[in-house]
Each structure stands twice: as structure tokens, then as C-alpha cells.
Design brief:
Blueprint: E1 2-3, H1 8-17, H2 33-39, E2 43-46, H3 53-62, E3 67-72
Amino acid sequence: MINNRFHGMVRQWQDLFYEGRYACSYLDNVPDFVKLADAYGAAGIRIEKVGDVDAGIQKALSIDGPVFIDVPVYQYENCYPMIPAGGSNHEMLLEDPPELKKPKSTHKTAVQSDSDTVVTA
């Protein structure tokens, strides 16, 4: 799971098409997904640094059974490509439009402290 503590694509739509007016998309309290996976009998893995992605995926592939991978990311990172509502494939968005400004949040935000960190809070 790409974990940005929001309903990720909902937040992205609210930024891109509704001027950052968030409605019910921020998840103030999220469970510890690694512990939740363990509670259901699956393996849980959290990958917190870019340099650990390959090893984390290899570890998941080596496990015989279900695996849940939690990857925390910057809260306002967007996911592309996406097609706007009512759009067609040739209207696909491949990156943030230049006018999109990253919102200021009153919530606990994630910040990137170095180039190797996926996310730290």
C-alpha cells in the first residue's frame, strides 16, 4: 500500500479539481498495517527508505503466503497517470500541472529529510 495518510486519489482529485477543498479524505488515525497484517495471519512489511525498496520486495517474494507491504510516502505526492472525470485516454494527466501548489496542512505532515528517505514523520 502506498500510504499517504489520505484517501490518496480522493485527495488528489480535491487538489486538482476542487482547489484543495478537502472533505473526508484525511486519515488522522491510521492503523499499524504491519501489525494488522500479522493479526490476520499475513506477513507485514514496512519499507521506509528508498534504498530498502528492492530488499523489501525480495523479502515479500520469499514469504510463502500473503504479504502486506506498507510504504509511507509524502502526504501530497500525486499518483499518475490519471484521466479526469469525463475525459478520454488522450486527455490523460501525466504530471502535476504547473499551477498546482502543495497545500499547507494543519495536520501532522510528512517531510523528506534526505534523498534516501521515502518518508519520515
